Amino acid sequence: MDIASIVGLIAGLGFILMGILLGSGLGLFVNAPSMAIVIGGTIGATLVAFPLKDFSKVGKAMKRIFMFKLEKPEDLVVRLVEISNKARKGGLLSIEGDIKSIEDPYFASALQMTVDGVKTADIASIMQKKISMVTKDNKSGATLFTVMGTYAPAFGMIGTLIGLVQMLATLDDPATIGPKMAVAMITTFYGAVMGNLFFLPMADKLKVRGAEEILNMKLVYEGVLSIREGEHPRLMEDKLNIYLVNTKPAQDKK
Question: MotA/TolQ/ExbB proton channel domain location, by residue (predicted)?
Answer without folding.
Answer: 100-217
